Structure formats: C-alpha cells, structure tokens
Amino acid sequence: MTAHRTPLSELERGTPFEQRHIGPDAEAQAKMLAQVGYGSLDELTAAAVPDVIKSAEALGLPEARTEAEVLAELRGLADRNTVLTPMIGLGYYGTFTPPVILRNVMENPAWYTAYTPYQPEISQGRLEALLNFQTMVAELTGLPTSGASLLDEGTAAAEAMALSRRIGKVRNGVFLVDSDVLPQTLAVIGTRAEPTGVEVVTADLSQGIPDSVAERGVFGVLLQYPGASGAIRDLRPVIEQAHALGAVVTVAADLLALTLLTSPGELGADIAVGTTQRFGVPMGFGGPHAGYMAVRDTFARSLPGRLVGVSVDADGDKAYRLALQTREQHIRREKATSNICTAQVLLAVMAGMYAVHHGPEGLRTIARRTHRYASLLAAGLTAGGVELVHGSYFDTLTARVPGRAAEVVAAAREGGVNLHLVDDSHVSLACDETTTRAALTTVWAAFGVEADIEALDATVADTLPAALLREDEYLHHPVFHQHRSETAMLRYLRRLADRDYALDRGMIPLGSCTMKLNATTEMEPVTWPEFGQIHPFAPVDQAAGYLTLIRELEERLAEVTGYDKVSLQPNAGSQGELAGLLAVRAYHRANGDEQRTVCLIPSSAHGTNAASAVMAGMKVVVVKTADDGEIDVDDLRAKIEKHRAELAVLMITYPSTHGVFEEHVADICATVHEAGGQVYVDGANLNALVGLAKPGKFGGDVSHLNLHKTFCIPHGGGGPGVGPVAVREHLAPYLPNHPLQPTAGPRTGVGPISAAPWGSAGILPISWSYVRLMGGAGLKRATQVAVLAANYIAKRLEPHYPVLYTGPAGLVAHECIVDLRPLSKATGVTVDDIAKRLIDYGFHAPTMSFPVAGTLMIEPTESENLQEIDRFCAAMIAIRQEVEKVASGEWPAEDNPLRNAPHTAASLGGEWEHPYTRQEAVFPAGVSTADKYWPPVRRIDGAFGDRNLVCSCPPLDEYGS
Question: N6-(pyridoxal phosphate)lysine (modified residue): where (predicted)?
C-alpha cells in the first residue's frame, strides 16, 4: 500500500475563500451549465459578452489570500493607525457604542444584510427601528416630521438649501450661511450650489443679517447651533429677521446639546439638520453616519430622502411602510431637486437604539457630563490666563493664543490628545462622552496651565445660558423607557430582527441591487478601534494604515474598471454620479466649452441619473429605448446631431438596465466622443463585468461604482453604501477634494461631495478584504457564476413566464426580467400579488416594475447555491400554477392566495371562508413547517398611510395593540 503524500504548502492554503463566496460548487455549476446549454463558464461568457468589449488580459491584482492571511494583513494596517483622544470636534466625537447594540445590531447579519424596506410586510422590524429614529430626531429638534436619515450633516445641509429654494417665497436671492457653520458643511454647500446657479453668501450673523445682504433677497438661511467655534447664541432674533425677509431658516443642530438646550423648532426654525454620529456610532475616519433632517408639517411632503410612516394592513392592524414615495428622483427624474435614493439605515438604527437604550434621562446625563468637562476645562484655562473667545458653550471651546496655536496643538498631540488648529492664534477643543480627567490635565499642560480638577469641580458652575435651557420634555413614548435592562434590550432587538427578512434568512433576488454574501471576515475589522475611533480630521500621519488601505483599494478598483484614477469620497451611488458629472462639467469648462450642458440619458435609466445631471447644471435629453431593450441607436444619433455643439455627456448603464449586454456599446461611445462629448457608464451592473470587461477600456470616460453591490459592503436595510467615482486621466484633475484634508483629492478638484475627506472610510476595509480574498481569478469566476445563475433562472422560468429581454445567443447578463403583463391582463393577478405571494413561500420578491412596469427583475448573484436557486424557481413555478387556478375560475379573482398574500399566523384563526385551504395559504409546495417564515403583518394599505401621514411613534394607547 502506497502512503498518500500531500505537500504541506497545499495543506497550508486550506479551502480558498472563493469557494465560500461562490454558492454553486463545481458539480452544481455543471448542472446549471447543462440547463443553459454550455460546457463551461468560459464558453458561456464568451457567448454572452460581446467581443468588442472583452478584456484580453487577466486582472492585474495580487494573488488571493486566505481569510487568516487577510485578517493578519488588516491587523498590520490597523496597527499603523494611531488612536489618540479625539478633542477636534467639528461634528465628529468620541462615543461609546453600547455593547448590546454593537453585538446585536452593528455586528448582526439580521440587521446589516437586510435590503431597503420596499417589501414592508417583511421589513417591520427595521421600519419600527427607523420610526424610533424619526421620533427621536423630531422630538429633540422640536420639529414634527423627520426623515429616515440622510447621508451626513454636510449633504443634509445642502439638501436643506435645495428644499428652501423649492418651497420658499423668495424666487431669487442668495443662500445666506452664518460664518460659524462647520467648515466642511460650508464646502459641501458650495460644491452643490455653484452648478445650479445658487449664490452662497457667508456672513457673521451674530448681530443679525447685514442690510447689504437683505437688500439682495435671501431665500434661505443656515445657522449652526452650537456654532463650529462652540458659541451658543440665541438664534430667535436672526430667525425672526430672516422670516421677515421671506427666507426659510435651517438650523444645523447637535442632538446631544439639544437634550439641554431649547430646540430649533421652539427657536422658530423651519428645518433642522445634523448628524447622529455621537449617538453611539463610531467616527470611522468620517463615516458612515446617519445625517438627519426634520421639518415643519407644511414641508413634510417635500422632504428629500426616505420617510417611514404608519399605515394599516388588510386586517386594519397597525403597520409601517415607506411613505409618500419619497424616492422623488425616480418619479420626478429631471424635475427632482434631490438625487438621494438611499439612507444610512444601519447607522440610523444604531443611533435610534442608543436613545432607546439610554432614554431621555440617560441622554441628559451624558450631555451634562460632556458639558461639565467643558466647563471645568474652560475654568482651568481662564484661571491660567488663557483667553476664551466665547463665554457660552456646550462642549467646544475656542482659545486665543497669539502666535502659538501650533505649539499648543503639537504639545497636546505629544500627550495623546488631538486638538483643532484653527489658525496661528486660535485652537478649538471639544469634549465628548469619552473625555476623561486625564485628557483635561494633558490639555492644560499643553497650554502651559496647571489646574486642580477636584478644586474646580467644587466651585465652578455650568455655563449654559439660562435663557436657552430646555424646559419641555421629550422622548415620551414607552419605547424610550421600557428597555433599561440589557435583557429587555436584547429581547427587543431580537423581536424586531425576527420580523424582518434578511440574507441570513434566505435569498433576496433583487435585480440591479446585487444582494450577495457579505462575509464575516470582511465585516470583522470594521469594529476594530484602530479603524472605528479615528477622527476624520486627525493628522494624516496618525492614519497611515487607513491611507494605505484607501490607496490600495483605489488602485485595485482602477485596475478592475480600466480607469486611471478613483476617488472613494462619494458615500452613495447617487453622490458618485454627481461627482462624475461635475468632473465632466469642469473638464468642458476648462476647455472653454461652457456651452456643453446637454446630458443624454436613455429612457430606461435609473432615475438618479437624470436627477444627478440636473444637480450638475446639465439639461437632460431623453433617448428612446428600442423594442429589444437596447438604446435606440437611430434616436441617439439624431439627438447627438441635434445637440452636437451642446453635448456634454451620455449616461448609460452597462449591461443595460434591462439586464442585457448591448452589442453596440463601443460604437455608441465612439459616436459620442466624435461629437465632443464624454461617456458616463453607470456602474450599477458592474457585477456582470468584473474580470470580463472594463468600462474604462471600451469607451467610458467616467463611472461610479456601487461598493454595496459589486464589492460586498452590505446594504444594511437601506444603507450604508459607498459610490466611488472612477475616471480616465483627463478627468482626474476634477475629482472631489476637501478643504480640511489636502491629500484627499486634487488641488484643482470640484470641492467635497461628502462632509468627510474619504466619505464612509470606516467600511472600506470590507471591499478591500473582498478583493484581497478573491484575487483577480476569483473575481472573474464570481462574475461568470453570476451570469450563469441569471441565465439558469431565465431558462428554468421561461416556459412559465416570458423573459422580456435577451442579448446575443438569447442570453441575459447577471439579471433577467420576467414579464407578468400578459398574465395580469388575462387573469387580473398583479405583479404585487406575485411579490406578496413569494413571502408565503419564504422569499423576498425580486425588483418590482423596474425598469418596466408589470415585470419582475431577478438577480440571483454568484453567492446563492443551487439548492436555494432551485427553491426560488420552484416557488415561481408553483405560483404560476396558482395563477392558472385563478384563470380557470377555480379561485375567484378577488379571493385567492395571491390576492390575499401574505398570510400571517393570525389570519389562520377563526372561521375560514376562503376557497383555498389554510394549508395552501401558509404551507404551499416546498415550504417547511419547521422553518416557516411568518410575516408579522398582512398586505399594507399604502394609500391609507399617505392620506393619514403619521411619521413618528404611535400614541401610547395604540402601542399596546
């Protein structure tokens, strides 16, 4: 008998991560290929992908590494970051994430792998959590309607500017910003204002609005409360003056300060914006964090972003949903004032749960402690002869030290504390939830002061102005009082998670959204303190590991896409679109082609494309879609010829929004270039291209990428996301930059797109890890299996549902659209009926009615195994057979399992008067009685919720029911 010998080097490698990421193994892939009619992955993608766009060479990426090796490499990068005590402030603060929230929300796939709640019946847990967030924001700001979160404070302020212009009484005029607004907010506003023709005027408003500004007309005013310098002012006089001028007033407010200070609503503000970062969300070198916006009732129906509302289900029971179809960019498109189509749900849930965990008393205690430290710090400095610029403050002090500010900041840094260098003679310093007595001693020493904290504590009074102390109560709802013990909090979080459907429960086959595996190895480093506790404006030498990770990810994304330069700053796909279009605009203007303002967009494009174009100062011209789903090339050529002198850019999605590889894409790009335009390739469907084709090589000049789609950042129930922008060399000088961090972009850039220099840097380790774990060959195979899975589903379902569009050889890309319109016309069964019936079978529905009304767009991704894909196909086929029973009259059109879906456990009780059985209702073919997912509510009445808009926690008398 010959002894078996396996080389140690082979054994040490273990199972490649690729085999964990890609669901179908070799045997399953062979079965799927046989169904589709091809002998190998290479043969399939050779037939599916047009020759004109194929990449000849392999991806030039480092070889794949094991999970242990990648974690070790990340640990090495993390160790190169230096975590100092953060006293920089400027909207970012140290905070303690309660461990029960860290473990059971941030690190829990039941929360972070969920999708946006477009199927509200199976999103009741996260919708309730978002309603908590909205209630928290509304009550702390004193304004009745809050949205479900925005991207960050800077973009929230820019959205407020756009909202003020849209709803205000003053048709022209300027947007007036107080000089004590956060500098990064002012910079983001400037980036957003210039392309749309808004003039931003900055002035010191501490003594009111200057006559010279008032005479010009003012449509909106932005104030900071407390100010960036730390100053607390009574804003009522300037708000009254602004209202007399017809202006809409926005107050950017610190929520923790609002637990002690009079609310913006009571001061007279129309809009409040800000961030909820310091409510338990790590700084993460700038993000992701949940921004907020709250408005007066009269503005509720114009609120940008998402809004959770209370409605009722088919039984009249309370249920939650997204209200008012607030994704206005998909409805209003080029008339939209915002391109925001996502939120920061995971972070909003964390911030809302921070308030649930602490309650109003706990929040007040944290705020009082923070202010107390600031008061003692101030007293020690003034006793030592240091001049403070302001006498009223919450947590931030500004000290005047003529000529020696840099020396003070350097001394504090040497002692382990980061302060903010304002200029040669001013230093600002901020206290927070994590500030310690030792930090105060270090700061005093840096200023050359000695102080006794115990003696000061015995004699120094707090310094909040009495006239601005908050007198009204807030957070009345029982949810902010019932979960004080960890046991209660743990059970509350579990109860909400159980009401939801996420990737940890089953397949989410959403077309265009790419719900693939978010591996635990990729997620783990996000919560390491060396990544989570770095301030975005810390000196760059303290973030050496972060900067290496960012540079390597930028370079690897450039290699994958075929572009020359990548910026990771945009913190959502919509923001990446805007950044790319602003780069195109700046390029044309630099060449003297200011007349080039026309943006051609296919009619099938994502709505954000049109909204982003308008926000970038462009005029949208729509290009028709041909019957086969591709761009109507004749119409495109006609539009190019008509607008040749004004053509700025063509925006296309590739593969197309219809899920096919268009064969004419290279010719289309060449035609646009010949006319002097640029080509923007929307990266929404990059999951079908990685390793097979590069947009930057087949004609694209610029693309945004969705790291939360192709590169594994989880969707988090509707955020966070990252939307980097990738460009060819000639557009690189016009990428985003940042006034507080010169290394974050080119000197000639268009300005910041997000408040933080590198956007949502805290989650970039996820995508870095994914690329490192897969390597070039693994990424290519992932793409090939994604294409295989989509074509397998298309072939399985085609005998039962027509597949709407196919490309070469009758193949689709990484998703397919099944057409339900003939069925609906013949039987009355709608796309909603089938989507809700899938819930009874234990599935989240595919994308409904986009890009074609009455269809389902299905994307299985590469991560679902054959068993789950077959389970989905079996459910769709069984539902088709149920539709036949409606068509034959066996089941009435108005009373059948599809029309009544989804069925809850409660709906089974009492008398059963339906023409189908209880068993058919809740345990249709293939559904296990042991593993059944029970939806918490029946089908929700959306119209009722819109007519009766309630966007905060229901009153106490409804809570018990």
Answer: 709
